[in-house]
Automatic annotation (TrEMBL):
Designated name of the protein: E3 ubiquitin-protein ligase TRIM39 isoform X2
Gene Ontology MF terms in the entry: zinc ion binding
Domain B30.2/SPRY: 233-429
Keywords: Coiled coil, Metal-binding, Zinc, Zinc-finger
Domain of life per record: Eukaryota
Residue ranges occupied by any RING-type domain in the UniProt entry: 39-79
Pfam families noted in UniProt: PRY (PF13765), SPRY (PF00622), TRIM_CC (PF25600), zf-RING_UBOX (PF13445)
Residue ranges that the Swiss-Prot or TrEMBL entry lists as coiled coil: 118-199
UniProt keyword Zinc, yes or no: yes
InterPro entries recorded: B30.2/SPRY (IPR001870), B30.2/SPRY_sf (IPR043136), Butyrophylin_SPRY (IPR003879), ConA-like_dom_sf (IPR013320), PRY (IPR006574), SPRY_dom (IPR003877), TRIM/RBCC (IPR050143), TRIM8/14/16/25/29/45/65_CC (IPR058030)
PANTHER family in the cross-refs: E3 UBIQUITIN-PROTEIN LIGASE TRIM
Length: 431
């Protein structure tokens, strides 16, 4: 009995499975497969692939375009010349291979996009965890600081109350002694009065008074004790010193002329800087800013805490903060943490901004005349304060410092004829 021939649909399924297996076997080497399915004319994956009599494959449209522009029909790869223009037929098997390859390539790209987004989620979670730990450290540090202050206040309070108590005891004792003395004087006066009554009937009373002048004179009286407030003053002074020690880490700063832009003019003591109309003839060294009117402090810091104050009174534009040592100093500079700057500033006389990326507008109740800058290197904290109103302006938290940071000053360009300097101010403690 003769075997029946396989159906057409079964043959198609079998052929597609074979093609699919071939693509799977080459999936681990996408580069070679792409080269095999690449048209040498358009350098892209085949579209409607056809084969020449010499065995090379091309896009049908690419090959027709080549032959339409040429008098001879040559193979674009091996240059074999065909005496008669071949009739081109689409290689359906190769077209299926190309289609499957495109589908697999698309799936691979989607999978890569998924993996990229999973990686971003992991990075965000990691950053959030680091930020959370940094916040917890900052909270613990703050709690510890104020716990120390509260203990200092409690100790001062206990000492002050004990001093007042001892003072009261001493005053009461002194009062009792004074009362006893006065009572004794009263008794003596009564006795003297009796003697005077007795002598009033005698003729020598005047002589008696001359002999005993104390009888006619009142006893000396003493003032009561006065309670001094010196104890309270000493206690408050001690508390002020404790607060100053905890909340201030002041440093002595000067501006570095080697970093100053040629348009900047520094004072002789290098505590003040302003913009001038004419540039100095200065050597273009790597440390110097050559485009933006900026200058760094001479002193840099790679550990611990430090605090300084800058007078900005009367200025319409300014930027103040800190910058890492490796910042770019040539050409136009964008001041933000990504470029190594942590700063706040004023624009157009009324627009206060934190120099983040992008900048954040700040709503301040009063116009700062003096700005305080506090840096905690290990905690990655940079905070700005209005010194006179004792109010917080802005803080960069959770930063990572890996090199020296330097105080940064930018007096900005002259606006409206006003050009007061930026001034490094001495820190003044209120008594």
């Amino acid at each position: 009995m003769a075997e029946s021939l396989p159906s057409s649909s079964k043959l198609k399924r079998t052929r597609r499975q074979s093609i699919d297996q071939m693509c799977q076997s080459l999936s681990s080497s996408q580069g070679p497969l792409f080269e095999e399915l690449q048209c040498s004319v358009c350098l892209d994956v085949f579209t409607d692939p056809v084969s020449t009599p010499c065995g090379h494959n091309f896009c049908k449209s690419c090959l027709n375009e080549c032959w339409d522009k040429s008098q001879n029909c040559n193979c674009p790869i091996c240059s074999e010349t065909f005496s008669k223009r071949p009739k081109l037929k689409i290689n359906t098997t190769l077209r299926q291979v190309v289609q499957l390859f495109k589908e697999r390539l698309s799936k691979s790209e989607v999978q890569q996009m998924i993996q990229d987004r999973i990686k971003k989620i992991q990075d965000i979670k990691h950053s959030a965890e680091l930020r959370k730990k940094s916040t917890e450290r900052e909270k613990a540090s703050t709690v510890g600081l104020f716990s120390d202050l509260l203990r200092s206040i409690e100790i001062c309070q206990a000492e002050l109350l004990e001093m007042i108590k001892e003072k009261q005891k001493a005053a009461e004792k002194q009062d009792e002694e004074l009362i006893q003395e006065l009572q004794q004087e009263i008794n003596e006066l009564k006795m003297s009065n009796s003697e005077l009554d007795h002598l009033s009937s005698t003729e020598d009373n005047l002589q008696h008074l001359e002999i005993n002048p104390s009888i006619g004179s009142p006893p000396h009286s003493r003032n009561g004790p006065e309670i001094s407030v010196e104890t309270l003053r000493r206690a408050l002074t001690q508390l002020q010193e404790t607060l100053d020690q905890k909340l201030s880490q002041t440093v002595e700063l000067t501006m570095d002329p080697d970093t100053a832009h040629p348009e900047l003019l520094l004072s002789d003591d290098r505590k003040q800087v302003r913009v001038q109309d004419v540039e100095h003839e200065l050597p273009d060294i790597p440390e110097r800013f050559d485009y933006c009117p900026d200058v760094l402090a001479k002193e840099g810091f790679s550990a611990g805490r430090f605090y300084f104050e800058v007078q900005v009174k009367g200025k319409t534009d300014w930027v103040v903060g800190v910058a890492r040592e490796s910042i770019n100093r040539k050409g136009e500079i964008t001041v933000n943490p990504q470029n190594g700057f942590w700063a706040v500033g004023l624009r157009n006389e009324s627009e206060y901004k934190a120099c983040t990326g992008p900048a954040v507008s700040l709503s301040l109740r009063v116009k700062p005349q003096k700005v305080g800058v506090f840096v905690d290197y290990e905690e990655g904290l940079v905070s700005f304060y209005d010194v006179e109103s004792r109010s917080h302006i802005y803080s960069f938290i959770g930063q990572s410092f890996t090199e020296k940071v330097y105080p940064f000053f930018s007096p900005e360009v002259i606006e409206g004829g006003q050009n007061p300097p930026l001034i490094i101010s001495p820190v003044i403690y209120n008594d």
